[in-house]
Amino acid sequence: MHDVARVAGVSHATVSRVVNGHTNVAPATAQAVADAIITTGYVPNRAARSLRIRATGTVILVARENVDVFYTEPTLSPMASGANLRLSEHGYQMLLALVDSPRSEEHVGSLIAGGSFDAAILVAMTNEDPLIARLMATNIPLVTASTPFPGSDVPSVDTDNVGGARAITERLVASGRSRIVAIGGPSWAPVTRLRLDGFHQGAKNAAIAHTTVTGWTLGCGERAMSELLERYPDLDGVVAASDLLATGAIRVLNKAGRQVPQDVSVVGFDDAPVAALNDPPLSTVRGDARATGAALADMAVAQIRGQNLPQRHLVLPNDVIWRESA
After folding, report:
1. Which member of 42, 87, 166, 261 has the lowest number of beta carbons within 10 Å of its beta carbon?
2. Average pLDDT of the segment spanning 155-160
3. What is the 3-state secondary structure (H, E, C) of 24-77?
4. What pLDDT is recorded for position 20?
């Protein structure tokens, strides 16, 4: 490479940038380097390069979730599948790491900081997760399946939480519902605020109240619905931040003698398997988790290869799936 630099009349660092595919090189300079490579007969030693830059050919997907939830939650497992397939197409292997304890957090953090992976995809993490700050202190490329982390420029991919919640709420209002409540997700989840924002944008004057819960469980949906029904017995619509919360709400309404959808319309978010199996089948918002995973993989690989990202914060569209619950 020093010979190439001498013949091209550029620095060794410039040759390195051209060989490694960086785009921040003037076209004329890149051409001079390309001509010098032909002149000198330079061929990159892939094995030596791998040792020098500590490339591993492996990307780690880190999810802050326990194993039972990860494989039953409607978006996480398909997202990982989409990422794994796309990484394979790029020539990378994916390792999945579930962080569900301080011990696993320390172990995974040490592996990543120690250079065991070329990039990390971060999933299901709150903005205050201590692992994020630790990884941002390293030089490893990061990308997150969430809203952008405050105060950082870590690339992100997410479904359109605001737009999806707004669209399904607008359809609920258009169906004639005028006293609508929302069951938001946990206050610590970044998507909760976004989906509540979409609810208020779509409901406008029809919104009479919203609440948040402590978790994404059926029981949390039941408790939230019981409290809202006691406070607003004449409510006629419910927008839930997930399908499981919506299912819990329907159970409470049924026990209270409020028929769905005759008396109260209920809608959810995510199009989990429980949505179509519900009685009545649940109207919801469907995103493409596999497409999200593929986009995360593309962003991770682009950073590994030093390429510019067309968009650092990508929001993917979703669709309203209208069924019998509304």
Report:
1. 42
2. 95
3. CCCHHHHHHHHHHHHHHCCCCCHHHHHHHHCCCCEEEEEECCCHHHHHHCCCHH
4. 62
